[in-house]
Amino acid sequence: MNNINVAPGQENLQDHARSTVFQMFTRTSAKVVYISLAIISFVWIFRTVIAGFNKQTDAWLTCLYYGFGKNQAPVIDFIAGGVISFCFLLLTIGFFSASAAAASEDQGAMIRSLKALRGSLVISLIVAVTAVFVSFCSVSVMYQSYRIDPEALFAYINGMDSNFLFAYTTVIGILAISVLAGMIVLTSSLIKSSQGSGYFTSALSGTIFMCFAGILIMFVLTVIFVSRLVMPPEISRTIDLAYTGCSALNTIIAAVSVVLFSAVFNLSDYYSKSASFAIDLSSGRYIPYRAPMFFKNHPYNYQHLKANPQHDSELDPSSVQSVEPDIGSRSGKVYRNKKQ
User: Fold this and answer.
1) Eight-state DSSP code of residue 326
2) Phi and psi dihedrals of 186, rounded to 5?
3) How many helices (H) and strands (E) does the chain have?
4) What is the pTM of this model?
5) CA gyration radius, the chain
6) Would you give the DSSP letter of residue 331?
7) DSSP string of 4-23?
8) What is the pLDDT of residues 59-79, one digit of tens each?
9) How far apart are CA 281 and CA 201, in angstroms?
């Protein structure tokens, strides 16, 4: 293995990067991630069952209702909800297996778990892009229905019109696609780091920013869903318990998503700070502390240093072996070790 002496008692970049990956998935934030994903998975399954059996319609699936017929709404709800729940379950299993591999300190299991997690993220990204496309098609159907007849069947669904659905799809769609794409890049970096290739920080700042945006957006959505639960925008002649149940579950999903984005933000920030510290350390930016002269002139310290002259040399920056900075930058290039 290639080695580089950065400072007495410090690990090299490769070992430090590998250690960072294992520490990431043993943190409380990693447990919060897969617990939150598990909660969202089961809540979404429950919501799908309620919507399917009660023929409850979702605005973002309007184009499918129009294309296949309103009487096919339960089938469409079951298929769409099942696919989304499946994606959340895959992500839950991926994060949980990575945490289990980190707890057992098994490098091979960690690499396999991270590759499985990356595959789950790719599948989820494909589903997210497809859902956004379907939702925009539904915006078109609702808009045209309203322009033809404001009282038409598909002009207004469960408190949503075409304008609200367009804004909702744009915000949530950009957020979901950006976060999933950023997590794919981050997971690829973690795979390389766990293999001992150093740190990769490309696109990491974008992922951190989108996670922070996700916290704010999902918090606002939680407030909106609570208001829609308490005061439904559309009232029928009878009390619609299916609508109440779906609205309650939407509120839970949005609230748990705030916790989920916070945990992912914490993990991404931890990897970023660990990379910055290790890279600065290897390039010689951190200098060991040296006691000022007035501390050395103190009678106790003077006698201590006189009896232990090596202690003073350990505090002397000139005694630390100089290090040639690694080629590359923090823009995402690989920081590799140099042979002595």
Assistant:
1) P
2) -65, -45
3) 11, 0
4) 0.76
5) 27
6) T
7) ---STTPPPHHHHHHHHHHH
8) 899 999 988 887 888 899 999
9) 16
